[in-house]
Design a protein that fits this description.
mainly beta, Maltoporin, Chain A, 22-stranded antiparallel barrel, 5-stranded mixed beta sheet, about 5% helix, about 55% strand
């Protein structure tokens, strides 16, 4: 039934596109070139992208692309890559739960990744200035001093390579131009938000050597408060951790404290050669991600773990009864205590202290942190070999160290996670591009990538305790080719191919916890895993074929088929040597049609795309491992266990309603249906009727702004934005307790600019209606019978003063 509805909608969309095209086509008997860029401020601006390795307008590129320039980012008040998902159809970007640290959860058209373990590859490729970011950790990029963002939807196997099975996000910073420009801005807002950003551009050698320096610093208090349970509940035997802090407050979660800097050097020794070198550094020591406990399950018989039907006791003193409600929990594990903090979802009892670890290990304390410290350098050489032949080389090195902590929100530890990760990467890409007889544009190239990483974590499971200390290495080699052939005026055929060979190794480290019952050695059942090496190797051919036809300067249509894959890996959470197993790559074949239009003298831009994807070898983590010689649990084994069809529709529009008055909007529909599941997936609770993780059925956005001119008084621009995301499930095994409710957020701003536009003052209000929503949830009932929610930011206001020069 769903497929029939989708096909009907797709045909209707195609018919509508044809009707739109006909009037424009009737005006010209021959296909025309694309509309020339216009200077009129009342028409839609052109954004130039490089999705096909050469500069093209978005409206001339046969791909589903959302492109956002620096001015639009500023007017919306968008400061992080996570923010751009609000207006990009079928794109879901969320900050990760505290269990996965300073990471992003990224999905496009229902394909992506949410687990930041190095064993799992991103399903959405992230690039900054053409440098690939290989992990979800460290991918929440700050949007400062940018030229544009390109969000490419659908598999980009031939254009972006591995792990772009869902799509790609490409971020480009501003290049130095030596014109002496720049800006400085300061912001103050709710939660004591203090923020300073700035950039300056200058020439070291006129017309030859330019520099651009960019920096940002942010400080902000958290919005989830941690309380001392013993202080708020006098008479309990729960240990107190107040330490003279007033009002029973231990601290907050969600606070920000980071600084970042970037330096760009651009050397243009001749009109054929350009060299760009970029270095960046980030020091983020923010607090742990905000979290509150939503549910306490029943794990009767396990010391220190409550159940829903009886009083939870410490030292024989009852602390409260859990109600069983997924959003109201009256227990020391609750997100609030009804007798003190009624109906507050922004409170917990996290201590980051384990005063009485199981099995005799010593008490320990960890820092409340979600920190990352990283830097990188890249060099890009563009050289024009001949009039229609050029070569580009992109060389990069990046490194980061991260430390993040998760406390499930109770005064007694049941899930205190302490992680330390380290990564170093190198990459090299070479492209040769050219044009033949004014009819064929082509690019051929090669790509090499390698990283080495350490993943360290303390694991506390009843009677199974150890320190994980794994070493992970990955390397990738690829060659690719892409060509566009203008067969006749208006009709282009596009083809691409890429071969990728990848390998990954995991060397398991299992160390003992000092003071444990095993004398500082790991549990005997897992001791044999120490030093075991797991390996995965795979290779893959990806292809793309497309036809595009420009009916008139205003209308272009296209159809394409493309493939992508996400490389496999090795089980990152093996408890026994028998679980140190590899898993294979995911693969996807996508069929897409689209229309791109600029109508009514380019005052109305409307783009529509429809897609049908065949998704194979879907990775599902199973909780029971029927392997010989070891217990079926504990188990967290990734297996390629499913196939699905994913289909949908996407529409985007920008309308210049009148002078100074602009409307933009988008709408997306997504349908995810499993077509087959393995016995292991079904045994883990996944059924064919369930949806894939992070696949909201509907998304939409709308924005309107009006720039009012007051002559010598400057301009005043109010703006409203609304964005809706439907509900989705966090895990493959759908359940009410891992469903993230839908949300509709309203943002507003008003900006004054001086007549010369060198000064501006802006007031931004986000989440105007103060809606309570959750970015994600962590269903950990299988381990400690709890479900933790990660609430989004409540209403905020901020005032920004900016000086441009």
């Amino acid at each position: 039934m769903t497929s029939t509805i989708f096909r009907t909608a797709l045909l209707a969309g195609a018919a509508a596109a044809a009707l739109v095209a006909m009037p424009a086509f009737a005006q010209s008997s021959e296909p025309a070139e694309s509309a020339a860029p216009a200077q009129d401020e009342e028409v839609n601006d052109d954004i130039v992208v490089t999705a096909q390795f050469r500069e093209q307008r978005v409206q001339d590129t046969p791909l589903a692309i959302t492109a956002i320039d620096a001015d639009l980012l500023e007017s919306r008040g968008q400061l992080s890559v996570v923010d751009v998902a609000a207006q990009a159809p079928n794109v879901t970007l969320r900050p990760a739960t505290a269990t996965f640290g300073p990471s992003i959860q990224a999905f496009i058209r229902g394909v992506g990744q949410y687990d930041s373990s190095y064993a799992f590859e991103p399903g959405v490729g992230l690039y900054v200035d053409d440098v690939y970011y290989p992990t979800l950790t460290g991918s929440i990029v700050d949007l400062v001093d940018l030229d544009r963002i390109e969000v490419l939807r659908g598999p980009q196997g031939t254009l972006s390579g591995q792990n772009s099975i869902g799509g790609s996000i490409k971020i480009y910073s501003k290049k130095p131009d030596g014109q002496g420009g720049g800006f400085v801005q300061a912001t103050y807002g709710r939660f004591n938000r203090v923020e300073v950003r700035g950039a300056m551009d200058f020439a070291l050698v006129p017309d030859k050597l330019f520099v651009r320096l960019t920096g940002t610093g942010v400080s902000k208090d958290g919005y989830v408060t941690r309380y001392d349970y013993a202080c708020t509940h006098p008479g309990t035997t729960v240990p107190s951790f107040q330490n003279a802090v007033s009002d029973c407050k231990l601290g907050t979660q969600g606070g920000k404290s980071y600084a970042a800097a970037r330096a760009a050097l651009r050397w243009v020794p001749s009109d054929r050669l350009e060299i760009n070198v970029i270095g960046d550094y980030t020091n983020d020591s923010s607090e742990a991600a905000p979290s509150t406990l939503l549910f306490v399950g029943n794990q009767a018989g396990v010391p220190g773990v409550p159940n829903n039907t009886s009083a939870y006791q410490i030292g024989g003193v009852a602390l409260g009864n859990a109600t069983g409600s997924p959003f109201i929990t009256y227990s020391p594990y609750g997100n609030y205590a009804q007798d003190t903090y009624t109906n507050s979802p922004y409170v917990n009892y996290a201590t980051y202290v384990n005063p009485a670890p199981r099995d005799g290990t010593a008490p320990y304390t960890v820092a409340d942190r979600n920190a990352i410290n990283g830097w990188g350098v890249s060099g890009t050489i563009d050289y024009e070999l001949a009039d229609n032949l050029s070569i580009k080389s992109i060389t990069a090195y990046r490194s980061y160290v991260t430390r993040y902590i998760f406390d499930e929100g109770s005064p007694v530890d049941t899930a205190l996670i302490d992680n330390y990760n380290r990564l170093e990467q190198v990459s090299q890409e070479v492209r040769i591009s050219g044009k033949i007889a004014d009819a064929v544009n082509f690019t051929v190239g090669g790509f090499y990538f390698q990283y080495d990483a350490t993943a360290r974590q303390r694991v506390d499971i009843p009677s199974l305790q150890f320190i994980q200390d794994d070493k992970i290495s990955q390397s990738t080699r690829a060659v690719f080719a892409n060509a566009e052939w203008a067969i006749v005026p208006g009709l282009d055929v596009v083809g691409g191919i890429r071969y990728t060979s990848a390998s990954k190794t995991v060397t398991y480290g299992r160390r003992g916890i000092p003071g444990s019952i095993f004398g500082g050695l790991p549990d005997p059942r897992i001791r044999a895993l120490d030093g075991v090496v797991g390996e995965h190797k795979s290779d893959n051919w990806d292809f793309r074929g497309a036809l595009q036809y420009r009916w008139s300067p205003e209308v272009m249509t296209y159809a394409q088929v493309s493939t992508g894959f996400k490389i496999g890996g090795v089980n990152p959470r093996a408890f026994f040597p028998q679980q140190a197993l590899p898993f294979g790559p995911e693969k996807l074949t996508a069929y897409e049609i689209g229309v791109k239009t600029d109508l009514f003298d380019r005052r109305v831009r409307f783009n529509l795309s429809g897609f049908y994807n065949k998704y194979r070898d879907i990775l599902i983590v199973v909780s029971s491992c029927p392997l010989p010689g070891v217990p079926a649990a504990p188990c967290a084994l990734p297996v390629n266990a499913g196939r699905a069809t994913v289909q949908g529709l996407e529409a985007e529009t920008t309308v210049k309603l009148a002078k100074g008055l602009t409307f933009d909007g988008s709408v997306a529909y997504l349908d995810f249906d499993y077509t087959s599941l393995s016995a292991a997936a079904i045994a883990s609770g996944v059924t064919p009727s369930m949806r894939g993780p992070f696949t909201p059925e509907w998304q939409y956005s709308a924005g309107v702004q009006y720039e009012a001119e007051f002559g010598s008084g400057g301009t005043l621009t109010p703006r409203l934005d609304v964005a809706h995301v439907g509900s989705f499930y966090q895990q493959a095994s759908n359940a009410a307790l891992n469903e993230v409710p839908g949300r509709t957020l309203l943002n507003a701003s008003i900006t004054w600019r001086s007549p010369s536009r060198d000064w501006s003052v802006a007031l931004h209000i986000t989440n105007v209606t103060d809606e309570l929503y959750y970015n994600s949830v962590f269903d950990n009932r299988g381990s400690n019978s709890t479900v933790t929610g990660f609430p989004g930011t409540p209403r905020e206001w901020a005032v920004t003063v900016k000086r441009t020069f």
